[in-house]
Amino acid sequence: MKKTIYIYLMIAFIILFIIGTLHNPNNNSEYIHENENQLQKIKHQFNNNKQNKRLLNENSIDVLAIGNSSLYSALNPLQLWHEQGITSYSAAGPSLHISTSFSILKECLTVQRPKVLILEVSNFFETKKVGNMAQNKVLALKYSYPLFEGTQRWNEVKNLPIIKQTDFGNHMYYKGYYYNNKVKANQNQYSYMKPTDAREKLLPETKIYLLQIIKLAREYNCQILFVCFPCSTAWTYKKHNIINDISKMTKIPFIDFNTETLLTNFNWKNGTRDGGDHLNATVAYEMTKYLGEYLNKNYSLEDYRQNKLFVKWERLYQSFNSKKN
User: Fold this and answer.
1) Which of 15-29, 105-119, 239-253 has the lowest mean pLDDT?
2) Which of 214-234 are b and which e, b meaning 16 or more Cβ less than 10 Å from the residue's Cβ?
3) 78: closest CA among 323, 264, 325, 315?
């Protein structure tokens, strides 16, 4: 649309130039100079509009979160925006393998420069692998494709068959968050977290991809945060211990809501939608609230709520809020 307007303005300029030249034969040089200045102003405004549009897309995410279904059920980027002014995205998929996590980070870094990378660590123990690197890339783009809209890679991404054929619902529209407020209690509470000194073993492949993720993030000056949300079906104290060891070795902070049970108002009676596998929206609110305050306190993240370039974020939050109610 803006390109069309620019073309019309150029045509108008040429017509005025011809008319002006015919009516001002003695002042052609002065007239030409004056209209060249007007043309430069038009070009400058047009280029600024293009740049402003790009700012809304490329390099617009300060926090990138990657993980499995535990992540997209627990972290609400639009709530982070509304409460802290932080721009974020949750790139997550069911049973996501860590090799796909690496591909997501690699692809997203072609158009985004997040300051913080949140890794939901339960997917470090996923064993279901993706076939090859090409398939991994396609899957990575499937779970992160909104981050490419309006960038130089959008035409490539939007035409992928997997993007055209998948019904994402509101999940991707709301920055990767899946809203579900059903309640099905976990009667066993925290019985899955029996204290032990044992460590769960990480697969050699997992160690390789984790090191690659850490290396790549640090190359782009992106700080890392390990997080594990409550999950009675996939988490154990043995897993907590090994991730805690890695956290200390790599000096990456680790928040485990399965052990730090007093950080939020979470409880297993009303906080899960399916008996202990995934959190529901009531508890996702508490988790996101805590993480937002933690991010604001521990990282230098800008509050964009007064920035007119990001007004669409607040509109999207209001849309989400009205639909969930």
Assistant:
1) 15-29
2) beebeeeebbbbbbbbbbbeb
3) 315
Query: Which residues 6+ apart lie within 8 Å of 231 measured at CB?
Result: 70, 122, 258, 276, 277, 278
pTM, entire model: 0.82
Encoding tokens for residue 63?
């926090």
CA nearest to 269, candidates 188, 179, 181, 192: 188
- HSE, CB side, 13 Å, CA atoms: give it for residue 110: 17
Q: Could you tell me which of 78, 31, 125, 102 has the C-alpha nearest to residue 292?
A: 78
Alpha helices for the chain (secondary structure H): 2-23, 28-55, 69-74, 77-84, 98-108, 133-144, 154-158, 161-165, 204-219, 237-250, 281-298, 311-324
**How do residues 262-281 score in pLDDT, each as one tens digit?**
899 899 999 999 998 999 99
Neighbour-count burial of 99, counting CB atoms closer than 10 A to its CB (0-12 exposed, 13-18 middle, 19+ buried):
buried
Instruction: Please state the rounded mean pLDDT for residues 245-249.
Output: 98
What letter does residue 306 receive in the DSSP assignment? T
C-alpha 79/C-alpha 75 separation (Å) is 9
Rounded CA-CA distance 176/188 in Å is 30
Strand order in the sheet with 88-92: 88-92, 63-67, 116-120, 223-228, 254-256
Spans of all domains in the chain: 2-55, 63-324
The topology (CATH level 3) of 63-324 is Rossmann fold (3.40.50)
Contact between 101 and 310 under an 8 Å Cβ cutoff? The reply is: no
Residue pLDDT, tens place only, 101-117: 999 999 999 999 999 99
Helix (H) or strand (E) holding 254: strand 254-256
